[in-house]
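Thread: Newbie trying to understand structure tokens

Hi all, I'm a second-year student working on a class project, and my supervisor (Dr. K.) asked me to get a predicted structure for one chain before our next meeting. I've only ever worked with sequences, so writing a 3D structure as a token string is new to me. If someone could post the tokens and maybe explain what I'm looking at, I'd be very grateful. Here's the chain:
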Amino acid sequence: MNIMIFDATPHWSGGANRILLYSKELQKRGHKITVCCLPKSGLSIRLPEQNIPCYTINPKSDTNILIIPKLIQLIVQNNIDVIEICSPKFYWVASLAGRLTNKKVILTRNVPYRKKGLKKYINTMLYNKLVDRVVAVSDKIKRELKEDFNIPDKKITVIYDGIELLRFSNQATHNDVKPQQFVVAVISRLDEHKGLECFINAIPEILQKISPILFMIVGTGSIEQKLKEQTKKLNLSDSVIFTGFRTDIPEILSRVDITIMPSPEEGMSMSALESMASAKPVVATSGSGLADIITNNQSGIIVMPDNSHQLAEGVITLLQSDYKQVGREARKIIEKNFALHHVVTQYESVVKNLTTQNHL
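---
Reply by user tm_fold:
Sure, no problem. This is what the structure looks like when written as tokens:
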């Protein structure tokens, strides 16, 4: 099967990681994967290292019809059977190119893009006229798609992000923190709307109940300096470490006790899934897709979004419990539903069914 994936993520993200993992696994299974992504993006750097063909294209916007001939040329040149579109900037141009070349089109939704008014009406046309199948990475996103765009249930398939289980197994415990010191991490892009200010505001309340404790903020982004200033203003510099962007996430997770996913709105956090795969329980918000897979107080903690008090209480409750057992329950969820070989098999089935329909 020849599959072309379109993505316009400029930075490294959970969505970009999903494309890399799926592409590697599909390539192992004998499929030909070709990716169109932005110049100088994380994917444009990592894909060639895995011998996965990659074209760098910047569509500028999803309505730039001038780029459609180029996309058609790539689809024909690579003898593509199915195209998958993972980013809004490619939604219209790539789906139109797919229609003009008579190829099946999959649109994958990694994060919620809820629309209102005219935009909602226009996107309803996209989903119902130009797309053959919609893949949602969480049950939450599927519910929102059905509600917002009146997409038939049978047209949407939930396929979770895949986790390489072996990368997050049998980790050694590092001894570079103080004895008896708890370590709590947030692994995220440091951007607006990720709930990071709320997390920092929760730290003083946590420190009143749990001590000693070290907080790690792993990642980089547009509000990194703002968050550092907030930390200093609250006199938290001795308790919070900013690590910057890291690629050694399994090693980072081996050093922590629990992680926090404070985003008020999230499809399905890859970093949270990796934490659960490492048997490190997560405190997440009810605005994320994690609320559908975590059993509260059993395999993690779910709190209300944008509420620093509840977030603090969630962390305190988890650390005062048998959080290692909670982590083991979290790992079971990943093993059952998120193993890479399992979710890629689901994806293969969707692609096969689409191409079979194409030849009937």
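A couple of things are worth pointing out once you decode it. The first strand starts at residue 2 and ends at 6. The chain has a mean pLDDT of 92. Feel free to ask follow-ups in this thread.
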